[in-house]
User: Fold these one by one.
Assistant:
Number 1:
Amino acid sequence: MTRLSAITPSGHVQLGNYLGAVRRWATQGTEQDVYFISDLHGMTTPHNPQRLRSLTREQLAVLLAAGVEPRSVFVQSDLVRELGALTWVLECTCTYGEAARMIQFREKAAGQSSVRLGLLTYPVLMAADILLQGADEVPVGEDQAQHVELARALARRFNGTYGEVFVVPNPVTPPSAARVRDLSDPSRKMAKSAEDSAGVVFVLDPPELVERKVRRAVTDNLGQLRYAPQTQPGLANLLEILAACTGKAPAELADSVGSYAELKNAVAEAVVEELRPIRAATMALLDDPAELDRIRAAGAVRARERSQHRLAAALRLSGIG
Ligand code: TYM
């Protein structure tokens, strides 16, 4: 059984990425799993080349520091030729309507005067990532579930039209912390590319900054400590973050703390302690570029070997190559 997932270097890794994704890749992953840095997806909105390269490196270090199996990781662009080829085949399997319907595309494109075509085809590249590696399960947060549905549809369509090549992947949504919200605006999900980072806790933020961001989190003036995501989203978000760090249920935690201030102190402490070892290990890895390069190169070799036969079959059956 192969699980596959990825993170895009469009910013520094934030708490939602960590609790909702990276931590699970580390604790539940096996050597057969595949976790990668999707730097090609990092080019779908205006980007700075140097920053893309350095964030790719930083995110690779964070994954390894968090305990993701080194044999499972690679960098997407190390397979740019293979993925470019399969993306084209899948673009010719996907309709314009299907791509244009994607919620993330509509959200990211809204109000932009100039939208990169790659933003529209982003989920097709994601389907290529998933199908090329033969993933059975794709663990992602709610925000990416629709993209995995598209990958399923394209796998079925390709197999039905040209012949059985691809595994039809299953999306898996994590039970808790599926959506960590922005601390300053709980109507939005926490995002690494947020314009205002006051409500975004980054995994590499120093402890004092984490504490400050948590203390300034928006709650409400109802003064009622209960877990009510609909009516008290800010409070519910803090309870969910604490739940993800302690393994307790959010409603149970709401009963056990005395005030909003006490809750914020508990959240700040839990998050700081959760992130402390990862921050230290990331710094150590970034100080050892040769080791990071070695892991990256070995990961690319494994990812290419795992996928070669599927790409060859897809090209042959669709009438090219
Ligand atoms: P990305 O970089 O947006 O997010 C990486 C992972 O973090 C999860 N996540 C969150 N979880 C909880 N709360 C949040 N606030 C939060 N924000 C992000 C995401 O659900 C995701 O699991 N397109 C993908 C990367 C990708 C990919 C793939 C994933 C490229 N190819 C193939 C799966 C399979 C992305 O940009 O994730």
Number 2:
Amino acid sequence: MNRVSVDSEDNLLIGGCKAIDLVEKYQTPLITYDVGMIRKTIRSLKQVFDEASLPYAISYASKAFATIAMYQVIKEERIHIDVVSGGELYTAMEANFPMEDVSFHGNNKSLEELKMALDLNVGEIVVDNFNELATLTQLAKERQQKVSIILRLTPGVSAHTHAYIQTGQSDSKFGFDIDSGQALDALKIALASEFLIVDGVHIHIGSQIFEEAGFELAIKKLLKTLANWRTLLNFTAKIINLGGGFGIKYTDKDDPKDPAELLKSLLDIVKVTLNQYDLPNASIWIEPGRSIVGPAGYTLYTVGTQKRVAGLKPYVTVDGGMGDNIRPALYQAEYTAVKANNVNAAVAEEVRLAGKYCESGDILIENQPMPLLRQGDVVAVLATGAYGYSMASNYNRNPRPAVVFVENQRAKLVVKRETYADLIKLDLPYKN
Ligand code: LLP
């Protein structure tokens, strides 16, 4: 286990603080982030762009983890965000995030959401489909407002990842399909509008991708399309958004390229292909979510009951589970856990780290080597920073955990633990 920091007594450190101290202060289940690690990843991506001497924007895909504190960190790092709902947009607004650095995504934005985005003057609306294009054209005209848009295109490339998180294949609910000519039709409609300004194009082929090959195919397809569009319509994209999807390490089986390294290779492909088609330089945008926050997140749980049957793998149960991390149940996602006060302890057995929810599928880790654990021990599940809290629920009416940011040995509560009172806050009696 060399992915985590420990002190001289083998305690897990998060942002320089002992995990067990955080637990003492904030209880469990507790979601913690090493903020320094988030910043480091962002800076490493920036450096790759700077070295490539390309105009760029890094847009944090905030669906991975969106809270006021997170938007504040992103703002401090001076990168963009993408939002996919009025709720994310509202949170960003409350964090005073600069609206010109916001892109608004989504395959079914409501009229209210579109109006909200126009009221706030978000930087780019990423238009996904013909209905949205029609609504937006109408809205922009009614309001006599110029609206900058990016067209989301579907390049017809499938990424090697779980089917639920593939998005680039032609048969996808997202985007204008390139192969069938939809994308070109969309461009013609958008260019015909007096109020829509088509700044560029967008692709996103999926998430948790390790291989360069899918990206390469998609980039080549996209740039070839742009070369055609230049010939046909004299259209030039100012922005080429390559989406997100860089994979991260969850277990020792995973061997992803470092996101900065992967980005470097992708930019090389972009440069060569732009040249090949004699296309002018555009601003290259990326939208990473998971790779920015995933590795920086640690979920801390307290061990409760255990069930042991001779010949079967033990169930060791913790005080959270699918309500704070649905990914194992939803995608068979795998994680790694460690004992927080003895990270490198000798392995005694392989256990199933089970959650507390009333569902057999609520197993956080199917096969985790562990020392013997006792009630009250604290375990940390690693790399839970992306799509954990953001997909959390109140299933079984369990309150959602607190979230703590840790940086330079300082911890700060950034999302309060829900209370039982919070759980019934929206309930109304049927009978008085
Ligand atoms: N851009 C677009 C248009 C996207 O749809 C996504 C993710 C991203 C960027 C960011 O992708 P990332 O860098 O995080 O891979 N809940 C799933 C992941 C869903 C991803 C949805 N879109 C999971 O837990 O694995």
